[in-house]
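Q: Start with the shorter request: fold the first protein.
A: Done. Sequence, then structure:
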Amino acid sequence: MRLVKLAIGLVILLLLPFLLWGRGVEEVFTIDGTISWLRSFGAWSVAVAVLLLASDILLPIPATLVMTALGMLYGPVVGGLIGAGGSFLGGMIAFLACAKWGRPAARHLVSDAELVRGEALFERWGAWIIVLSRWLPIIPEAVSCMAGIVSMPRRLFTGALACGVLPPAFTFAIVGHLGVERPALTFLLSALLPAAFWLVVHRKMRRATSMNST
């Protein structure tokens, strides 16, 4: 139960920037405004877009809107790669930071036995939790933090994170590039494609592991 409370506490902590500045950020970030803002950085616009998406761990950045703008600005392929790169970077920062500093802090709140149970949970189901949570707000950042706190295997986390961020990034980039508005279909694809992607990648990872062990 303490581990669950820790996860809930992380969600609440990550919600604070949205409660404090979310409305103001929503007023600033529009499709046209985001495109104009990125263009103003010239050659640095790609780096700015990546850092903008990566900062979603701390700031109330409307990631799906930014990904859509990237599709309109750079096309479905390049825009999708930029969006996926920014989301991946944000997830890795949360994971690595919490692995280094979050676990020692968590020891003051939960016992070593509970952390061990958390390790077992994330080693078995953590990849699915990461993949299936990427289309939700707030939850992906909290899950990445929890994965770091309970020392989820880095290779497993990296593979699941990649499968989680690639389909939504390309989906929203394609939507932006085509200029269509189908929110239900977009969110459905963002939720289902990562799971399908992970099924394929996970099977290949298991096959490679079994071949290396023989």
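Q: Next, the second protein, separately.
A: Sequence, then structure:
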Amino acid sequence: MRKLIVLGWRRLSSNWAAIVPGLAIVAGLLPIDASALPLFARQTGQNCLSCHAGGQFPELTAYGRKFKLTGYTMGERATIPLAVMGVASASKVASTAGSTDVGADFPHDGQFEFTTASLLCCGKITDNIGSFIQWTWDRFDHQNDAGKWVSKSHIDQVDLRYADRSIAPTHDLIFGASLNNNPGVADVWNTHNSAFTPVPTYVPVGNPAGNAGGPFVDVPAAPTDQSLGQHSAGLTGYLFWNDFLYAEVGGYRSTEKPFTVLGDTRVSGFDSFQRLKGINPYWRLALNHDWGANSAMIGIHGMSAETYLDSADTGSPTAKFRDIGIDGQYQYILDPHVLTAMFSYTHEKQSYNDALWNLSNANFTGTFANSSNTLDYLRAKVTYIYQAKYGVSLAHTSIRGSADAVLYGNPTAVPDSRLWAPEIFWTPVQNVRVGLQYFMWDKYLGAKSNYDGNGRNAKDNNTLFVYVWAAY
């Protein structure tokens, strides 16, 4: 059985002009063998197109949603329930203006490298229990005290499920429970909280405008329910009635004992993430309709969360977050065409303990200028795929928030930003994808030009991103 992925590709060149030809060479060397399928396809005996719209991970078809809802238990249990996937990529930022240490802020800018790899233990455990468990190695995980970027391996997405089904002449009911480590990761439409990136591009690698592209071009703010990542442990119950009504409700807490195994503290202790106080409720409702080659969903989601100012000190002041949003998806799947459109809008209300903002408080920390703030976060994406091989997409993210000079610390004192991300991609075989994206900012932190007061413009954050993704 031949491998479709080679972990540890050598860097092709430090010259940007060599990156795109290098991608073509890598793709050309991959064997065209569709019989070697990823783990879920091996379990079900179906090809990737059965579960994923146009074969593009992680956008699910109606069949793929049923597979996830029934606890990844369809088909025969694999003898070795393991899979691997990896990404080789490069990003090139438009300008490094404003950086005092380009090497630290924009590590390996313009160089093609193997950037991330994952080991997955997934699939059917019993007739009613299944899992999706991912362990990931990141080439650019964090910076050490000397400012050097350090690689790290860590627990990634976890979704351990129990599911059952009741079928009768009057109903078809799927019900179950999910133990997971990211609010929304159990959702089967992947609209309001993608497992991979804060902008809706759905490439299985960290946003190149984030840790691998430099802090100057990261998304400046996101709702708490989409920011907790692998620092939360949740138990949710769900049901899907007559292929029409989906409901999910549960609670999340920080990944402390007995849930430490689900957490990714990444650097050390509780220093690097938002630590939740107590149990924080999460809920999701959606209406779904499938007809012919079409499928449509409209839903709402929400979460109430409370976090400590100092993650290492449970006696520190807290901030409260109330998230509520609406999302939707439309799919048209009829060979050779696949069209998917999706959106998600979330409104967040933030309120703070007096010690965090009130000047008259003896314990004032100077963290916020206001007693409360709001954040509005919109994401949308349209994808078209032809013959399950050639695809284009356009993604958009829009962020707006109330002014707070202490929280945002920039001249405009707001997080307001707009991002467009067009992409073209090619899938030579079912589990290999080559793509090119361009992240275009027409506003950043409230301004088109000089948003930081030091002459940096929004368009300086534009980032070209190329990648090769493969799984086996």
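Q: Describe the second briefly.
A: Residues 1-37, 198-214, 266-271 have pLDDT under 50 and may be disordered. Residues 16-471 form a domain with the Porin fold (CATH 2.40.160).
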